[in-house]
UniProtKB/TrEMBL annotation:
<keyword id="KW-0694">RNA-binding</keyword>
<dbReference type="Pfam" id="PF00076">
    <property type="entry name" value="RRM_1"/>
</dbReference>
<dbReference type="GO" id="GO:0003723">
    <property type="term" value="F:RNA binding"/>
</dbReference>
<dbReference type="InterPro" id="IPR012677">
    <property type="entry name" value="Nucleotide-bd_a/b_plait_sf"/>
</dbReference>
<dbReference type="InterPro" id="IPR000504">
    <property type="entry name" value="RRM_dom"/>
</dbReference>
<protein>
    <recommendedName>
        <fullName>RRM domain-containing protein</fullName>
    </recommendedName>
</protein>
<dbReference type="InterPro" id="IPR035979">
    <property type="entry name" value="RBD_domain_sf"/>
</dbReference>
<feature type="domain" description="RRM">
    <location>
        <begin position="193"/>
        <end position="275"/>
    </location>
</feature>
DNA sequence: AGCACA
């Protein structure tokens, strides 16, 4: 593909000032950035080759559930930045989880994060929008690459050509995550490569969990645990193993507080497992837990600041959600976000049907 | 608020 000559689709007037954005937030009763987090429905993607085009990115994300519009920036001297807007936070998180670490081609791997601000839709030729003709009715963003019959299959590495849900089926698969809600995570364990998933609905099954976790970066296996003796709480829990602590940490952050279709008792609670998959505790009976107050500032999974924002226990080099890659911090004032799209997400703290549990 | 498997 021929590299773009010049910066034909970068325009300074696409940018909205941060002060505008903040004052708009305040007018909606949102006083901290954290409160807005669950309303962010934009994914920020980097890692493209220099010759990527806006239409190329649009075609990469156009079949994701909830996709609304995208914009690619190619400012001289700045690495390529793409933004994709979805119609709610959950869809943005799912797209983010698919796009992150996705090999784009032989030399380039994408990095995807939830953006700091939503893409501001304006009548600009640089913004490509979802098809509205009705001719494209596919609305698939989540098809597990795993075989449902095998017990613990290792997910295949996704690539742009065999993207999960990408023109694979004429029977759309319903998105397994319907939203996010705040969740307390008072006690967590030391980060490891295995996650403990709590507060699952009693009707959850392995197939649903595979839809959610099976295609995430680094997924290795999961195990569903049923404890009928458990009274008054969730009788079902799940262990999910990833290929690295880093991969587990990313899912710990991005899927915290997710609400599944089977969720009838509130959002899931994700903790690091007391013991990694397949490894026995060195000293049984010795407390390993670490009080964490809450799971994190939780910029991604919900909009309430719970606790004091105690430090996350991420391994070196892992950036909490919302951050940029090391050495590539995003200047919010230089991003094309405006306030026009806040408050339109399907879920907000004010209408969460679940008590904080 | 529930941590199995080896």
């Amino acid at each position: 593909m021929k590299p773009q000559s010049g910066n034909t689709y970068f325009q300074n007037d696409n940018f909205q000032s941060v002060s505008n954005s903040l004052s708009n937030s305040a007018s909606q009763g949102l006083t901290t950035p954290e409160v807005e987090a669950s309303q962010i429905r934009t994914v920020f993607v980097t890692g493209f080759p220099a010759d990527v085009t806006p239409k190329e990115f649009h075609n990469l994300v156009r079949f994701f559930t909830g996709y609304e519009a995208s914009q690619l920036h190619n400012k001289t001297g700045v690495y390529l930045q793409a933004f994709a807007l979805f119609n709610n936070h959950a869809s943005a998180v799912q797209a983010c989880n698919i796009l992150n670490q996705l090999p784009y081609d032989a030399e380039n791997t994408l990095t995807a994060k939830i953006a700091h601000k939503n893409l501001y839709l304006k009548d600009a030729p640089t913004i490509l929008r979802a098809d509205t003709t009705g001719k494209v009715s596919l609305n698939i963003a989540w098809v597990s690459p795993s075989s449902p019959s095998s017990s613990y299959p290792v997910s295949q590495a996704p690539s742009a050509s065999n993207l999960p849900g990408y023109l694979q089926s004429d029977a759309p698969v319903r998105s397994p995550v319907s939203g996010f809600a705040p969740v307390l995570n008072k006690y967590d364990n030391l980060p490891c490569n295995t996650l403990f998933i709590g507060n699952l609905g009693d009707s959850v099954d392995e197939a649903e969990l595979r839809l959610v976790f099976g295609s995430l970066f680094g997924f290795k296996q999961l195990k569903l645990i049923c404890n009928p003796r458990q009274v008054g709480g969730s009788q079902v829990s799940c262990f999910v193993e990833f290929s690295s602590v880093t991969a587990a940490a990313a899912v710990h952050a991005s899927m915290q507080g997710a609400i599944f279709n089977s969720s009838d008792r509130g959002p899931i609670r994700i903790q690091y497992s007391k013991n990694p998959f397949g490894k026995r505790s060195a000293h049984p009976g010795v407390a390993q837990g670490i009080a964490q107050g809450v799971s994190a500032p939780q910029l991604l999974s919900h909009g309430l600041m719970l606790g004091d924002g105690a430090p996350m226990f991420l391994p070196p080099g892992v950036v909490p959600n919302g951050g940029g890659p090391p050495g590539h911090h995003i200047n919010p004032g230089a991003l094309p976000f405006g306030p026009g799209v806040l408050g339109e997400v399907s879920w907000s703290n004010a209408v969460s049907p679940f008590p904080l549990s």
